[in-house]
Design a protein that fits this description.
The protein has 181 residues and is mostly beta strands. The chain contains no helices and 16 strands. It is globular.
Length: 181
């Protein structure tokens, strides 16, 4: 559990690579049903961090990564971070995925010059549940290139019922130029 910190819950920075984050509760209490916010983001991946996996299939009493209740975003990928994957997580809900415990700035932010990151999976629907946040579900800022958002429930609970973010599902102002990698 990574909750109640003054800044971010988890940080993968510099040239971090090959790290797996699964399963964790970030920004909530130990039961996963109440907020214990981090002062910043739930998870920050920045610098040139690459080839990191946020999600998985490990068997645990914690069913999946949950990034909720933070004062910033649930998940941020920034700098020149690339080739990172985020899947099988709940971002903005309690641990059961049926009630909002949103992040204050939004669900997922891809910013800076981050490229070729994947939010979701090709085969699993829904891959992530990104719902109940203040702000957009997913934001791809200008300067980002080649990031994919696929097969997620955005604005729905785990049963497919409405559980909106306060902003749009996806905001994409990323460049449509050639991938830098």
């Amino acid at each position: 559990m990574f909750s109640g910190n003054r800044r971010n819950g988890i940080e993968l920075t510099g040239n971090a690579s090959g790290v797996t984050v699964d399963p964790n509760i970030v920004g909530l209490n130990t039961k996963g049903d109440g907020v214990l916010p981090n002062g910043g983001d739930g998870l920050l991946i920045e610098g040139t961090a690459h080839a990191n996996t946020v999600g998985g299939t490990r068997h645990s009493v914690i069913p999946q990564n949950t990034f909720s209740g933070n004062r910033g975003y649930g998940v941020v990928i920034a700098g020149r971070a690339h080739n990172n994957s985020v899947f099988r997580g709940f971002i903005g809900t309690q641990i059961l995925g049926v009630r909002a415990l949103g992040n204050k700035k939004g669900g997922v932010l891809i910013a800076g010059h981050a490229y070729r990151n994947l939010i979701g999976q090709k085969t699993r629907i829904p891959s992530n549940l990104i719902s109940g946040n203040t702000g957009a579900g997913v934001t791809l800022s200008s300067g980002t290139v080649g990031n994919l958002v696929m097969n997620n429930y955005i604005g729905l609970d785990r049963f497919g019922r409405c559980l909106r973010n306060s902003g749009p599902a996806i905001v994409n102002t990323g460049h449509h130029k050639r991938d830098p990698g």
